[in-house]
Amino acid sequence: QVYEFVKLDEVYYAGSHGMDIMGPPHKGKEITIFQPAKEFLPSIKKILEELKSRTSSIPGSFVEDNTFCISVHYRHVLDEDYETLEEIVKGVVSACSSSFHMTRGKKVMEIRPSIKWNKGNALNYLLETIGFHSDSDAVVPFYLGDDKTDEDAFKVSRRGGVGYPIVVSSMPRETVASHSLRDPSEVLLFLTQLAQW
Fold first, then answer.
1. What Pfam family is a match for this entry (predicted)?
2. CA 128, CA 122: separation in Å to the nearest integer?
């Protein structure tokens, strides 16, 4: 999905909390280079369909398929319907034994495979793949994120003191990121200026 938004060649893409990583295309075809939760795909599909079915009667809820992660958005759900939605999601997850777990983000519940993998692991994998090491100036990692799940990647990007972890938040919050931007418009301005530098 990330590639469809950006569509830049010669770029590595990571989605689904780093569980779906692609390298630069070769002869016009996307190359998947790492999927640590591939064996969970059939189960994810079943959970996705069950969640869509069971939450369809809750106005404002939206179940999103992120390939290796299912996001249940509730930004537009009425307060009186939230508890019902949460019970449905928790029930579906608990029926999966310990194979899946739920985390929370900004007005979203996310269901992911229970593997030892997070955005920090994904960033570390990408940095190793492109040959990054802290005493090299060939790669300067920037990591921008607006969610609690980005904190693991912020930690990785701070290692060695050469990276730039940037939290995107309109409100001050506790974070290990060393820099901050207020909103997506500031992110756009920052990236535009960085590209022109």
1. Trehalose_PPase
2. 10
